[in-house]
What we know:
Elements: H1 2-17, H2 24-34, H3 37-55, H4 61-70, H5 73-87, H6 90-101, H7 103-140
Helix pairs in contact: 2-5, 2-6, 3-5, 6-7
Amino acid sequence: MKKLIFVFAIIIGTSAFGVYGQTKNDDIIKLLRVSGSDKMADQMMAALIPQFKQIIPDIPDVFWVRFKQKINIDELLLACVPAYSKYYTHDEIKQLIKFYESPLGKRMVEVTPLLTQETMAVGQKWGEKLGQEIVNDLIKEGYVNN
């Protein structure tokens, strides 16, 4: 009976220990995944291909299929590790993971892409309006000819 309790204690203890990675870098990768950064990067790349197609329309679709297959999001995540490591302690990374695994953190991951899309559209309209005001002022003040 004591052996059985000991075995269960080891199993429970090691499974609880496995919540975080063995190293800070492992936890940074986990953070990037639970925060949805990997999915956001994948979505951004998927959105770029149609833009490339518009810029250079003579390229056959087979090229873009091969191009998309070359994209390795894991490679991007690994390249981001040093920046996260520079600005966050290991303990802070663990706290961020805990947040993103919480109901509010999961909600944030769900809503962020939609919020980003909407706020980018707002920012674009705002920038266009501001740009037009600057051009109008430059013309009005004689810095630029009409």
